[in-house]
Amino acid sequence: MKKTKQNIVNFSLSHKKYVKKLRQDKFLVIFFRIFILVAFLGLWELLTYTGALDPFFFSSPSRIVAQLGELIKAGTLFHHTWVTLYETLIGFVIATVLGYLIAVLLWWNEKVRKIFEPYIVVLNSLPKIALGPVIILWVGAGTNAIILMCVLICIVITTMTMLSSFIACDEGKILLLKSMHANKFQILWKLVLPSSMPDFISVLKINVGMAWVGSIMGEYLTSKAGLGYLIVYGGQIFKIDLVMAATFVLCILAFLMYFLVSLLERKYKK
Amino acid sequence: MNNILEFKNVKYFYQTKNDEIYALDNINFSVKEQEFVSLVGPSGCGKTTILSLTAGLLKPSSGQVILDGSDKIDTKKIGYMFQRDMLFDWRTVWKNITLGLELQKPKNLDEKLTFAEELLKKYNLDGFKNKKPRSLSGGMRQRVALIRTLVMEPKLLLLDEPFSALDFQTRLALCDDVYEIIKSEKKTALLVTHDISEAISLSDKIEVLTSRPAKIKDELNLSLSGATPLKKREDKAFSGYFDLIWRELTNEENEAKHS
Fold first, then answer.
1. Cβ A182–B84 below 8 Å, yes or no?
2. How far apart are CA B111 and CA B183, in angstroms?
3. How far apart are CA B56 and CA B80, in angstroms?
4. Got the DSSP string for B70-124?
5. What is the C-alpha to C-alpha distance for residues A83 and A92, in angstroms, rounded to an integer?
6. For residue B230, which of A202, B82, B173, B199 sits 20 to 30 Å off, Cα-Cα?
7. Using the beta-carbon criterion (under 8 Å), do B99 and A180 form an inter-chain contact?
8. Which residues touch B170 (CB under 8 Å, ≥6 apart)?
9. Which residue of B78, B84, B85, B88 to mutate against A (max A Cβ within 10 Å)?
């Protein structure tokens, strides 16, 4: 930032105009982002307030805020949020690490890779929610089942993306390392893994979203607490305010997690 | 001078699912110490196969490849320089040129590191030591790639069209640089190229290859005056050599078309 400011002083009028235009464009983008949010919330509030929309079915921003206040007062909001966050994070980490390791294994051994190829393709296209009942039978209803659901949803895409990234590694660079007498482990460690870092970051970004899908889906199946539980429960007792309040918290958490990953990305790109 | 590299009646077949491709037919040539030898030939004739055989990445189907007196090829004696610089973007220039040391962990590591430092200084790259390759120009990147191979102190440098990805101006300048570096480090080099004038301006000896299966069609011992490749291009004999090789290669391509 400092650099651009100095440059403006030194450069010509047209450059000043150009920089001004850049700033205006940036301002416009941010302005409309906020505008859309405010307009959406305002319109929602207005329509429910005047009775054009029935707040019983559609809730309203003010009712969501009131509901959140109630949950905070009752002291349950933090508990439910923590339960879901915990399931999501554990599922996310297990799926990412395990999926990554499986991809490395499949890269290492071409025969194993060929043998498992059709299984991975089928697993990928299988809707994991179909395994719900089986999962509950295997690991019991509760947190384990939810985490397993979360892992199942994230792991296949992790393995597939990382494997194709490993395989796409520059043949020329592999040849270079071979000409330097590198063994297979060194090729993996010095070349294949670092060069797949950008893809790994995209996998993290995908998994951040998928892990939430997994844990909420898991909570739909079987849960005693969590944001997914609140949503299902709220739906069953026709308390749309509760459903919306839980969804709102989910939005914030998902955004925060995505933000953390993009911080990691920025750090890596430096 | 001793022979660093010798090909004796080397034949090579590539195996594919439906075919066996006859790539090299009785290749015989040698490279002496501190000699600069080029291989020119029609594209796809198996020039790179010869380099791969030399580097021990492939084994001859029959015949012998003798490197530094032994037919068991020691990869450590070879430095390979490619068409693309193959620098690792996530490593700094310094980390790139010491890559080979990192892999092989030689006993005299400290000496080699000092040597690497010296090379960087000598060839005006020490200011970029801690920069990532993406901030370097194409020519500089190739110089870094060359230093990366020189650090390993190979007996023989294999150059696989190392200039062909560059624009003409950079190409001529880098050609001079590389020539100077190779001569002042007293290295032996084997170059593969399809650029005839490049081969003439750099080499002491040129092997002209036929199309596949490749045979040695002609061997030219060159003596051009001029201290650098660019100066050599001004020698009167230059165009004579060019015409000769050009004719040999065009005949070759015509024959390939008719057969």
1. no
2. 22
3. 11
4. BSS--GGGEEEE-SS----TTS-HHHHHTHHHHHH--TTHHHHHHHHHHHHHHTT
5. 14
6. B82
7. yes
8. B137, B138, B139
9. B88
CATH number at B240 reads 3.40.50.300
| Contact assignment for A179 to B80 by CB distance below 8 Å | yes
**B74, B92, B99, B105, best to mutate vs chain A, most A CBs in 10 Å:** B99
Count CA atoms closer than 13 A to A2's CA, side-chain side. Answer: 0
Residue B7 lies in a domain: yes
A77 within 8 A of A68, measured Cβ to Cβ = yes
Pairing of strands B78-81, B156-160: parallel
Q: Which helix (H) or strand (E) holds A74?
A: helix A61-74
Which SS3 state, helix, strand or coil, does residue B235 take? coil
3-state secondary structure of B165: coil
B18 burial level (CB within 10 Å; 0-12, 13-18, 19+): exposed
Strand partners, B189: B36, B157
Beta carbons of B144 and B125 less than 8 angstroms apart: yes
User: Are residues B27 and B63 in contact, defined by beta-carbon separation less than 8 angstroms?
Assistant: yes
- Distance from the Cα of B55 to chain A's closest Cα (Å) equals 7
Q: Which two tokens stand for residue B15?
A: 């195996």
Ramachandran region of residue B122, left (φ > 0), alpha (ψ -120 to 50) or beta?
alpha
The CATH number of the structural domain formed by A73-269 is 1.10.3720.10
- For B111-161, what is the HEC assignment? HHHHHHHHHHHHCCCHHHCCCCHHHCCHHHHHHHHHHHHHHCCCCEEEEEC
- Closest by alpha carbon to A70, among A253, A255, A246? A246
Report whether pLDDT(A117) > 80: yes
Q: How many domains is chain B built from?
A: 1
| C-alpha B230, offset from chain centre | 18
User: Is B73's pLDDT higher than 90?
Assistant: no
In this predicted model, what pLDDT tens digit does every residue of A22-78 receive, in sequence order?
A: 999 999 999 999 999 999 999 999 999 998 989 888 999 999 999 999 999 998 999
pLDDT tier at A1, thresholds 50, 70, 90: very low
Domain span holding position B75: 3-254
Beta bridge partners of B160: B192
Q: pLDDT category, A250, cuts 50, 70, 90?
A: very high
Model pLDDT, residue A3: 47
Phi–psi pair at B65, nearest 5 degrees? -115, 115
A196: nearest CA in chain B? Answer: B90
Angle at B48 between CA B44 and CA B54, to 5 degrees: 150
Q: Which of B82, B100, B88, B92 is nearest to B148 (CA)?
A: B100
